[in-house]
Specification:
Length: 454
């Protein structure tokens, strides 16, 4: 996996960095880092692979790589960097063209699958028009990768990544409401005694989860010192922000990206969540991690590029909040949704269940109809076979009557009948003079030893 420059990191910070790993004081970290880079996290974008491959190809062109290193935020956002595409090598352009054709082909398959799932006659649809709904490439030109494609890819990825955190929060909120809905449905199915006992048990689990050590505010001196001491193994009295930054800039690109920041919160999260405990939900732990990262970005990331530079980091350590932060409130401090929101969510679930029931009933009716049609076809098949058999029987009987074949038996087999033939030979007529009363009608034997005439 390539290591992206700050220009790409500005827009694609999720895919640019690597997962932070423990620092090896003995120099053994290099091998681990390379392995981690190969397992870089997915951005969650539906065009993630296409995005990665385009960046990898562009990074192989020396001219474009040089321009990227010197580009600033405005150059990338206003599309000026995209115009440099005209100057890349022919080989790079050819590879980009092929990547775009593959992406268009993939999108067509997705469209067909989607249309097929909705029982739409996809063959009658205009795929060129449908491709317009994808914003990360130019649908009017489906064969070559142009400057407009790079501009669209950058702008779309930027917008989608900015909305990514909000979508994750909404997804987690729905997850929590679903948990509460299932809890209530489960309790409804119990008798009063069991329900009271189960409610008491669940309440005890919630209270147990809340009894955790104090969590330090993300990015505060207390939180960073804890990492410095317990993760880095250094003397807390010698804490140095600049050294701390360099230690945790694991890919050495001069900035802390989102993955490198989130790795700093592990010690705090372990105070609240343990995968061995029934009361601790690991989905909640990841939501807590996201909230911590957003807190640092809000207070430290001055230029809002989703990255923390060394300068921004050092400035944050000079703020009053760095030494005297507000107490960090974990997720269990206040509810994530109102009762009204939960009721709307449950109504939505009921509507979906009813729709599924209707679809199941429709499928059941179609199945029964297919069974009836199968039975009718089987009956027609038997009638056809009987008609063919009867026709064959009549043909054989007709041939037997015409003397062409022996008569057929009751099952259509040929039946051969023995015929009587006269075995008596006709007696030869013998002249009257040779016949004698009571003698054989055969002529007398010729005389023996008659003289020969010469």
């Amino acid at each position: 996996m390539m290591t992206l420059k700050p220009g790409w990191l500005l827009l694609l910070s999720i895919i640019a960095g690597v997962w932070s790993v423990p620092i090896d004081r003995n120099g053994g970290n290099q091998e681990v880092k390379e392995e981690v880079q190969e397992e870089n996290a997915d951005t969650g974008l539906y065009y993630d692979r296409y995005l990665r491959e385009v960046i990898e190809v562009l990074e192989t062109d020396p001219h474009f790589r040089e321009k990227l290193q010197t580009a600033n935020t405005e150059d990338i956002k206003n599309g000026r960097l995209s115009k440099e595409l005209d100057l890349v090598s022919h080989n790079v352009r050819t590879r980009l063209d092929e990547l775009k054709r593959q992406e268009v082909s993939r999108l067509r398959m997705l469209l067909k699958a989607k249309l097929d799932s909705t029982n739409t006659q996809s063959l009658q649809m205009d795929h060129a028009s449908l491709l317009k709904q994808f914003e990360h490439l130019d649908p009017h030109n489906q064969n070559t990768f142009e400057a407009k494609d790079l501009e669209l890819l950058i702008s779309t990825a930027t917008k989608d990544l900015e909305n990514y955190d909000a979508e994750r929060h909404e997804e987690f909120k729905r997850y929590e409401m679903l948990k509460e809905h299932e809890r209530r449905e489960y309790l409804k199915g119990l008798d009063q005694e069991k329900r009271e006992r189960e409610e008491k048990r669940l309440q005890e689990l919630r209270e147990k989860h809340r009894q955790h050590p104090k969590v330090n505010a993300p990015g505060s001196v207390a939180q960073l010192r804890e990492v410095w001491e317990e993760t880095d193994g250094l003397d807390p009295q010698e804490f140095n922000p600049k050294t701390f930054f360099k230690l945790h800039d694991t890919n050495e690109d001069g900035v802390l990206d989102e993955q490198e920041l989130e790795a700093l919160f592990t010690k705090e999260l372990e105070k609240v969540y343990d995968p061995k405990n029934e009361e601790d939900d690991m989905m909640e732990m990841e939501e807590e991690r996201l909230r911590m990262r957003e807190h640092i970005m809000k207070n430290v990331d001055i230029n809002k590029d989703r990255l923390v530079s060394l300068e921004e980091f050092l400035k944050s350590t000079e703020k009053k909040e760095f030494n005297n932060p507000k107490e960090w409130e974990t997720l269990d401090a206040k509810p994530l949704y109102t009762e009204e929101e939960l009721q709307r969510f449950e109504a939505e679930l009921r509507d979906k269940e009813e729709e599924l029931k209707r679809r199941v009933e429709t499928l059941h009716q179609e199945q029964e109809l297919l069974k009836e049609r199968g039975k009718a076809l089987e009956a027609q098949k038997r009638e056809y076979q009987q008609a063919v058999l009867e026709m064959s029987q009549r043909q054989k009987e007709q041939q037997a009557a015409d003397g062409q074949l022996p008569p057929a038996g009751p099952n259509g087999e040929l039946q051969f009948q023995p015929q009587t033939h006269k075995t008596e030979e006709k007696e030869p007529k013998v002249p009257a003079e040779h016949q004698a009363d009571g003698q054989n009608n055969l002529p007398a034997e010729p005389p023996q030893n008659l003289p020969l005439h010469t």
